[in-house]
Amino acid sequence: MGGQPLFILDEDTQRTHGKDAQSSNIAAGKAVSESVRTTLGPRGMDKMLVSDSGDVVITNDGATILQEMDIEHPAAQMIVEVAQTQEDEVGDGTTTASVLTGQLLAKAEDLLDDDVHATTIVEGYSQAAELAQEAIDEEVLDDELDDEILEKVAESSMTGKGTGDVAAHALAETVVEAVRHADSDDGIVRDNIVVRTQTGSSSSATDLIEGVVIEEEPVHENMPRSVQNAAIGVVDADLEVRESNIDAEYNVSSVDQLNAAIEAEESELQGYAEELVDTGVDVVFVTGDVDDRVAAHLAKAGVVAFDSVGDDDVQAIVNATDANRVGSVDTLEDEDIGAADDVSVEKYGDDDLTFVTGGATAESVTVFARGGTEHVTDELERALNDALDVVTAALDKGGVVPGAGATEIAVADYVRSETAGIEGRKQLAVEAFADALDVLPRTLAENTGMDPIDALVDLRSLHEQEGRAGIISEGQTGVIDDPIDYGVLDPAAVKREAVESATEAATMIARIDDVISAS
């Protein structure tokens, strides 16, 4: 080769390898984790996120914060993915998963500095995660998940989040009622529960609607705005003059021919209206467009029509009324027609909302959330969705565990107790995993106004004595006691998913020793 250098990468390619790459990735992950740490717990703080266009989001929801942040570092993006996975799987615990990931990375960095190989860290973390899952299973309460316990789960999820002028307990009752309504033989059908927000009133006006609320108004001003005992039709078509599928040109040479064309159009449009009236429907929801002349005929017959209805809204209406979607009005049969106790259009400020309630099957329910401003309703919507998700997770995915950091203390204690049976340097990684778990109760204590070191010592002491100890927010500080006595409960699924996703992300980042960036 004559000593000539061999280039396999473009000369503008940037490459970071070895400990520099590991340090850079770990630092990025820790920075993202730190950005949401202060939002954890009932005394967590909010973040204000301002986009380039000036849009403002105020929230303490971990997933929302990370989604709104303009994060470019690829390792940091993995933390965002952790939060998104947590949100998708169980609906809550995004901050918990993110903070735990950051701490696992911090402990991994210490081990790497002590010359513990990354593969050893990965193996140790994986084994520790398995032990953690065993410990979480041991913490699951044996109590039957009645409404009282589920309300505590919902309230624990919403405490510290933006719920306007209404207490989390009052909203928890609405949440549990909604979930119970969506319960079926196959479990909770979460898609049958929708949160609809509307500004213009206080949060205490939030209510549960047994049915569907859509942001639509009748296509004609003379149509009724309220129909009792309504027969419901759903049509996936345009109710307007059909267009030819081929390019054709028609020459009209006389007034008679023009009149004939107009009469043909009018006959076609009137036919749509007559066919609908003949089926006996009182209300029809159309996914396509409704011609003004069809609307006029329907209004004259007392039939209410809505057009350009979105697919999600249509599906909710179908679930609520037991109607069947049909492709054209001439295929609408008696068995396709649904029923609702009431269809009414109500005005809220400048908006018209249509309520379809008391359907034949009423599988769909709507949590109609109110708030004085858009920022309030946005945060209330996030809080309600999280609460709905955690109650669903508690019922469908393995029960509930003590909250307030009690489960994390118990899990950390169990993992530490098992380290003696693990050989080699892997034991150091397992012990580091247990130490990382302490970040969650320590952060809760710090956000509550307690000294985090003293609180952690007292937590461990009370756990050893009583078998359960958590940090309860009380007044301007906190107390260390049994969280079950205070009704602080979390779904076990949230803890399991946080451990799993945080471990996967931390081990993936820790294994990277080479970063090659294209120019």
Could you write a compact summary of the structure shown?
Helix content is 48%, strand content 18%. The chain has 519 residues and is of the alpha+beta class.
Describe this structure in words.
This protein is an alpha+beta fold and 519 residues long. Helices cover 48% and strands 18% of the residues. Strands 8, 9, 10, 11, 12, 13 and 14 form a seven-stranded mixed β-sheet that branches. The protein has a three-stranded mixed β-sheet with strand order 6-15-7, with helices on one face. A two-stranded antiparallel ribbon has the order 1-20.
Mean pLDDT: 81
| Helix content range | 40-55%
Shape summary: elongated
What count of helical segments does DSSP give?
Answer: 16
Number of strands: 20
Taking pLDDT < 50 over at least 5 consecutive residues as the criterion, the unreliable ranges are: none
The proportion of residues in beta strands is 15-25%
The radius of gyration is 29 Å
C-alpha end-to-end distance: 28 Å
- Given helix and strand content, the structural type is alpha+beta
Profile the largest sheet: 7 strands, mixed
Draw up the topology in text.
Elements: E1 14-17, H1 19-37, E2 47-50, E3 56-59, H2 62-68, H3 74-90, H4 94-113, H5 118-139, H6 147-158, H7 168-181, E4 183-184, E5 187-188, E6 193-199, E7 207-209, E8 211-214, E9 226-235, H8 255-279, E10 283-286, H9 292-300, E11 304-306, H10 311-321, E12 325-326, E13 338-348, E14 351-359, E15 365-371, H11 374-396, E16 400-402, H12 406-418, H13 426-437, H14 439-448, H15 452-466, E17 470-474, E18 477-481, E19 489-491, H16 492-510, E20 514-517
Parallel strand pairs: 6-15, 9-10, 9-12, 10-11
Antiparallel strand pairs: 1-20, 2-3, 4-5, 7-15, 8-14, 9-13, 13-14, 16-19, 17-18
